Amino acid sequence: MELKKLEEIFQYKIDNEIKIEPKDWMPEAYRKTNIRQISQHAHSEVVGMLPEGNWITRAPSLKRKAILLAKIQDEAGHGLYLYSAAETLGISRDEMIDQLHSGKAKYSSIFNYPTLTWADMGAIGWLVDGAAIVNQVMLTRTSYAPYSRGMVRICKEESFHQRQGFDILYVLSKGTKEQQAMCQDAINRWWWPSLMMFGPTDSESANTEQSMKWKIKRKTNDELRQQFVDMIAEQVKVLGMTLPDPDLKWNEKTSSYDFGAINWDEFWNVVKGNGPCNKQRLNARRKAHENGAWVREAALAHARKQKEKNKAA
Amino acid sequence: MKNFITKHFYGDYGEIEEGGVSNKNEQNIAWPLWEVFIRSKQGLDHKHVGSLHAADAQMAIENARDVYTRRLEGVSIWVVESKNITASNPEEAGELFEPAENKIYRHPTFYKLPKEVDHM
Ligand SMILES: [Fe+2]
Ligand SMILES: [Fe+2]
Q1: Which of A47, A96, B17, B101 is the most exposed place for a label (fewest CB within 10 A)?
Q2: Interface mutation target, options A84, A97, A311, chain B, most CBs of B under 10 Å
Q3: Hey, is the C-beta of B92 within 8 angstroms of any chain A C-beta?
Q4: What is the pTM of this model?
């Protein structure tokens, strides 16, 4: 079939909300954009385990340890769903891991911030997972079918993440003066980086326009960010805490919250690798991969031997 | 007659990703890809839920348990190495399913019956 006809069929499907499956013809740029977005999403889930992993042994009770462990295990699962989805586009798992380790592929910058206190586990669940949910709910309707199916699965699991985070902060907010201060401090440190999770503002976002046209994305970065602000600005009242933004104000006219300017210099600086923990995170990932190499080899050798044994029998 | 069923790997990886133990490149220690099917409860069909990498079938089942059934989503798991899946070609879907399309008399709604027996 000639290219023009194939492109027409593809666009017809997009326009009519027919999902694109792995073996359907798709423009090369659509394939590449999806590989980039899905693999970076997968990397974010995997690197995202590190800041929280930092607190498993120090969680304040057995119950909190078990919950945190389950939450982090979910994130590993999310990474795996997403790697598989990206693999359907023709990139191998090894290649993606290499791209992460070489710094060619990015992951969400939020995970380059340190987790200093137990309250950070609450703030991450509530704010970071909360922001991720806003994005991911939109992505359940993305046009590439395996990505969309992965998102449906992930969204089912995420709501526990945000709730356990809020629960941690809620308990602290009802605690001693020190605990309340710790709660407010964590919110102060995680608020702005959470807003940055949605990416550059629409006018500066290189990928948004084409992604919207192909229905990979359904809402712009700024629309999603506003949705998040409106949600959190209400929920923070229940905690009796505040968000660190003097310009945050309800706007009658727009029926949403106005908020202050984001420090984009900080954002780009962390994206470029100069955040507080960029090096630490990548080193941890590389080390885990290298240290696991003998296990992967041994498992393959074992499988090979078993197969030969079965053949001989 | 045209051969409608052609062999394709799930996801169309081509030859490099055929996986399996017989990997040409010794340096390449990638585990093969498996497709996972889960019976969500007794009495229902197994349904495709996704894929994962594992060195062998036993490990694929154990990994599938961890990845796809952390919240009691299943009572039984099937795994099959992705390279063993034969799939129809989407480009030939039109021809492949055409015979079903023009046999509308296979549907109960095709028959206009008298009111008295129309609940049949
Ligand atoms: Fe996640
Ligand atoms: Fe999460």
Answers
A1: B101
A2: A84
A3: no
A4: 0.89
Q: Mutate which of B21, B66, B72 to disrupt the A interface (most A C-beta within 10 Å)? A: B21
Is residue A279 predicted with pLDDT exceeding 60?
yes
Nearest-Cα distance to chain B for A76, in Å, is: 8
**ipTM, two decimals:** 0.89
Given a cut of 60, whether residue A228 has pLDDT beyond it is yes
Look at residue B6 and tell me whether its pLDDT is greater than 60: no
Task: Read off the pLDDT of residues B95-107 as tens digits, 9 standing for 90 and up.
Answer: 888 888 788 899 9
Q: Judge whether B33 is closer than 8 Å to chain A, CB to CB.
A: yes
Judged against a pLDDT cut of 90, whether residue A71 lies above it is answered with: yes
* pLDDT (average), residues A229-252: 98
For residues B57 and B45, give the distance between their C-alpha atoms in angstroms, rounded to a whole number: 20
Tell me whether residue B6 is exposed, middle or buried, using C-beta atoms within 10 angstroms of its C-beta: 0 to 12, 13 to 18, 19 or more.
exposed
CA angle A212, A216, A220 (to 5 degrees): 45
Q: Give CATH for domain B31-117.
A: 3.10.20.520
Domain boundaries, chain B: 1-30, 31-117
Q: Which ligand is nearest to the CA of A76?
A: 1
User: Six-digit token pair at A98?
Assistant: 């290499």
Q: By the CB < 8 Å criterion, does A98 face chain B?
A: no
Q: Is 80 exceeded by the pLDDT of residue A293? A: yes
pLDDT of residue A136: 96
The shortest CB-CB distance from B67 to any of A1, A77, A90 is to A77
